[in-house]
Amino acid sequence: MSIIDEVIELKKARRAVILAHNYQRGEVQDIADYVGDSFGLSQKAVDCEAEVIVFCGVDFMAESAAILNPDKIVLNPAPEAGCPMARMITAADVKMLKNKYPGAEVVCYVNSSAEVKAESDVCCTSSNAVKVVNSLKGDEAIFVPDRNLAHYAQKFTSKRIHAWQGYCPTHHLITAGDVLVAKMEHPGAEVIVHPECRPEVVDMADGVFSTDGMIKYAKNTGKDLIIGTESGIIHRLMKENPGIRYYPLSPYAVCPNMKMNSLETVRDSLRYMKTRIVIPENIRTRAKKALDRMLEVGR
Ligand code: 13P
Ligand code: SF4
């Protein structure tokens, strides 16, 4: 039996659903029931009726699914896959910020630990950060941990944002020089980038989107695209919108953590029901409030 058939059989036996982020390896995306961005995956984790969710992404994504679904079994096939940006802030840092800016609500990018979410008022993803910030009652916001997403959101709000100085090491490798070179090499193509990119890269782009936003944009533009985000998304772009060409903005934009899943880790996860993600209840309930508020505002 092929490993793909093994996964299909185990999935049926376990009544499981496989969710995968757009940056996963192509073969993992191909066996998933749903592939999407952080927001779409959170929604899917809530809406799906499966008893078991196998979450192929990095740790904060499986954690979010577990926070939102205490009655479902959430499995992370690669629990060692973390997000370095999420590790750039702690719950103690958030408490310190709340003392420093007592009038400001805390907006927490989902790329964060459950403990950090528990200290926050509302979560956001790259697809709804602007909407979430603008939904706050006050005129000040604390935004953690991504300084680049905060900088992007600041352009579309009159609220004053106090940003934590975290960043994504993968998107950090995409430079303004890369944009200049790519535009010269592919003069007819448009540059679309993720808001985790450096501000100067965002300023030079023709469009700024979450990963699902890029998939949607590719469906409607007739032009070839230069892609300023993690390279895994090109698999889905080529599969769903094969009519145009895609050029990675930088060959270095690879997130090693996102590549830790494989057909083997997914099969073993279903075979041995590992690694189950359980969040301590006192943290889970507080973190869930911040995620629920995002799901309410962000849709
Ligand atoms: P998206 O929500 O746009 O998929 O982004 C998640 C992420 O980790 C980007 O680096
Ligand atoms: Fe984290 Fe960046 Fe990897 Fe996304 S691409 S999971 S933000 S390190």
Verbal overview:
One of its GO terms (molecular function) is metal ion binding. Its EC number is 2.5.1.72. It is an enzyme of class 2 (transferase). With 299 residues, the chain is α/β, with parallel strands linked by helices. It has 3 domains: 101 residues, NadA-like (Rossmann fold, 3-Layer(aba) Sandwich); 100 residues, NadA-like (Rossmann fold); 85 residues, Rossmann fold, CATH 3.40.50. It is 44% helix and 16% strand. The longest helix has 18 residues. It starts with a helix and ends with a helix. It binds 1,3-dihydroxyacetonephosphate (13P) and iron/sulfur cluster. The site of 1,3-dihydroxyacetonephosphate has 11 residues, from loops.
What's a concise summary of this model?
Helices cover 44% and strands 16% of the residues. The chain is of the alpha/beta class. It binds 1,3-dihydroxyacetonephosphate (13P) and iron/sulfur cluster.
